[in-house]
Every structure is written in structure tokens, then in C-alpha cells.
Amino acid sequence: MNTFTIAVMPGDGIGKEVTPPAVELVKQAAHQFEVRLDVETIAAGAEFYAKTGDAFPKEHYQQAASADAIYLSAMGRPDIRYPDGTEIGPQHDLRKGLNLYAGVRPCKTFDGLPLPLVDERSKKLDFVIVRESTEGLFAFPRGHELDDDESAHNLLKITKTTSQKLFDYSFKLAQKRFQQGRGHNLVTHIDKANVLSSQHRAREWFDQVASRFSEVNSNHQYVDFAALDMVRRPWVFDVMPTENQYGDILSDIAAGLMGGMGMAPSAEIGDNHAVFQPCHGSAPDIMGQGKANPTAMILSGAMMLDYLGDKHQLHALSLAAAKLESAVEQAYAKERLLPYELGGNSGLAEVTDAVAKYLV
User: Fold this and answer.
1) Interval 148-174 mean pLDDT
2) Are 279 and 261 within 8 A, CB to CB?
3) Which residue among 104, 158, 193, 199 is the one 20 to 30 A from 341 at the CA level?
4) CA separation for the pair 200, 206 (Å, rounded)
5) CA nearest neighbour of 251 among 146, 345, 127
6) pLDDT for residue 143 is more than 80
7) CA 113, CA 94: separation in Å to the nearest integer?
């Protein structure tokens, strides 16, 4: 039996609630295809910082980095901050330290949920934003040498090397999705090339990569118009690579199309490492009430299985990922689940039990 080590980081708030049942479902899916996942639980986050004075000790980081994949839940607490007022987020340390440049944000809608768009095509969305996660405006969040009492600056810097890795990943993802019968065999580069010279360069780098994938369709779209289309006709998209800040904003729109952050999984992928986590926060206001929605955590686990299957050329794990995702789809379609954040009363136990019912 193939065995993989998974570093599990429950984090803060409801992260500690959604993690245990999600881990069990992911392990069960893998086991059905004769793959064993050995779990190593690693403490980190705001609550750990409040107890110890160190949010993410070096030895904990190294333990996570040595695993085959990192399964991370909600991190941070609004009431626990560093002395300078900034948020505590070990996930950012992993992103930078492991060079996880591809922030993968799927948008897939499920039957039975009250979604914001009325067009029937919006009930069957299936596209992916690929957010560059190590460069761009977010990579330089602190003050700039030009700052003074009157002016503040941030630097938007992107590189050809990282951009081309991001685009290469995006084209391969579009190919894979098309082979699975998903998407439009299309990569749409989202930029602001009509205003920013850095984005014009990004277009040139994108086109260079696109020339190596002639069997995949490609185009460009300005970020403001892409935001309009994500509300007006989101079904036209397939794979959407974009700059860091643009991706941060557009992925929240995508989460809204799905029904909210509790439905939105994500992955941070680099050349040799990957982190998988839900897009939602620690939600301290509902801790301990059984109201947490584990869907995004479960779907992030399915993405982790698929990643391991691709990386190690182990088709069994890709099948396990597909089965776990299908179990989530069936749970929502057949059990009339409606999470609390969407006005229902399907909490942690209800969603978990429903998914487990179809993972047999």
C-alpha cells in the first residue's frame, strides 16, 4: 500500500472544529483506493502565539515542509495580533518560504443552494482562478523608502521566471480539465495591460507560454472587465491566471458565486511543495456552536489527493479525489443541505455525515 505523510495544521477558531472530520473523510477516500495517509498534527497560529509567543516555530515549519503535502485550516484571530497590529498567518510563511506561486481557487457550484445569480447556467459553474501568490503588489506590503508624511507607496513587481511558471501551470491545468470533460480548453490571462507596464510585460510572457500550447485556446481580459463578466456571465471562464492582488479580489467574487467562503477550497502549489486550505477564516463568533461549514475544508482535501496523484503519477489518488468531490456534490444535491451562512441549519455534523453517507 502506498503511504504519504500529511502535515495537518488545524490553526485557530473553527479550524480546529472542521479539521478532524475532514481529515477522516480524506483518509477514508484514499484508503478505498489502497493509499494510506499518515497524519502529523502541527501546532501554529494566533492561539498558539498567545500561549507561547511564537506563532510558527522553526521546527514546526521544517516538519511541515518535510511532509508530502500540507493540509491547513483557518489561521488567525482578529483579537490576537502581533505588536505592530498585523495579522498572524503562518500560511504566509509557508507560501513565501516554499515558493508556492500558484494559488488555485476553484469555483464550482452545487445543486440545491440559494446562489446569487438567477441564470440557470450559473448553477453549473466550473472554472478556476490561478492567483500568483508570491509576487505582485501583495509581496511588498510594508513601507517603501519613498514614504513620507504625505505619501505612502507599495511596489508591484513581477518576474518573468515566476510568471511563466504560473502560466505553464495554468495551461496544463486547462488541458487536464478538458481531458476530464470539464471547462472550455481555455486559458484567459487577467491583467491591466492597458494601464500598467508590468502587466504589458506579463502579456508578452503569457503569449510566449501560450505558443507552446497551441492545442489550448488562450486570450486576455482586463481585470475590471473580468470582474464584470464574473457577475454577468461567469460560465464563459475556464482557467484564469492573474496577478496576486487581482486574484485575491476575483477569488472572493468566485466564492460569492458558490454561496460563500464556507464553500470555497484552495491550494497553494509550487515546484516541490503544496498547501491545501479552505478560503474562510477562523470565525471566532461561531466557535463551539457546531455551525461551522466543513465543505471547503473537505474539498481542499480532495484537491490535495488530486495533487498527490499527479505528482506521484498515482491514478488511484486521482480517483479518490474525484470520489470525495462527488460525495460532496451528492450530499448537497440529495440531502438538501443548507449551511448556516446561507440561512440554513446544516452545521458541522450534518454536512460531515451527509458526505460520509455518499463516500461508500
Assistant:
1) 94
2) yes
3) 104
4) 10
5) 127
6) no
7) 34
Task: Tell me what the mean pLDDT of segment 208-230 comes to.
Answer: 98
Calculate the average pLDDT of the chain.
96
Per-residue model confidence (pLDDT) at position 72? 97
Ramachandran angles phi, psi of 31, nearest 5°: -60, -35
Residue 63: helix, strand or coil by DSSP?
helix
CA end-to-end span of the chain: 20
**What does the alpha-carbon distance between residue 346 and residue 173 come to, in Å, rounded to a whole number?**
33
Mean pLDDT, residues 256-264: 96
The backbone region for 282, taken as left when phi is positive above 0, alpha when psi lies in -120 to 50, beta otherwise, is: alpha
Kindly indicate the confidence band of residue 222, based on its pLDDT and cuts at 50, 70 and 90: very high
Task: Tell whether the model's pLDDT for residue 111 goes beyond 90.
Answer: no
Count, residues in the chain: 360
C-alpha cell at 284: 471566532
Give tens-digit pLDDT for 167-211.
999 999 999 999 999 999 999 999 999 999 999 999 999 999 999
- pTM recorded for the entire structure: 0.95
Using an 8 Å Cβ cutoff, are 264 and 328 in contact? Answer: no
d(CA 129, CA 82): 31
DSSP 74-131: ---BTTB--TTSPPP-HHHHHHHHTT--EEEEEEE--TTS--S--SGGGGG-EEEEEE
**Cell matching residue 51:** 500561549
Cα gap 348→115, rounded to integer Å: 20
Question: Residue 212: its pLDDT value, please?
Answer: 98
Q: Do the beta carbons of residue 264 and residue 105 sit within 8 Å?
A: yes
What is the model's pLDDT at position 87? 87
| Helix%, strand%, coil% for the chain, nearest 5 | 45, 20, 35
CA 8/CA 69 separation, integer angstroms: 9
Residues 240, 188 contacting (CB under 8 angstroms):
yes
Rounded-to-integer distance, Cα 193 and Cα 49, Å: 41
Query: Smallest Cα–Cα separation from 74: which of 114, 115, 18, 118?
Result: 18
